[in-house]
Design goal:
Elements: H1 12-34, H2 40-64, H3 70-73
Helix pairs in contact: 1-2
């Protein structure tokens, strides 16, 4: 019997990494916008890049939770049933 995954699914660590990257990127971006520092442009670009890199973790989390029935996988990787 297959285990049932609830909540975040199989890839909880990818989910939390994506959330962490989003939060850190947004904080850095907002600090660059609202705090009066001479390197504000670096913070704005760095925050945007970190938020963009969080997309990698979101894709990993999403693709790790895709469920494909074994019957659909049989003809995918050389496990094609032979005609008798």
């Amino acid at each position: 019997m297959e285990p049932v995954y609830r909540g975040l699914g199989r890839c909880a660590c990818c989910f939390w990494l994506a959330v962490a990257f989003d939060i850190v990127g947004l904080l850095v971006l907002l600090i660059g916008v609202f705090v009066n520092v001479f390197f504000y442009d670096l913070l704005i670009y760095a925050g945007a890049i970190v938020v963009f890199l969080s997309l990698i973790w979101w894709v990993f989390w999403y693709s790790g939770n895709i469920e494909v029935p074994p019957a659909d996988l049989e003809d995918d990787v050389g496990l094609l049933k032979k005609n008798r």
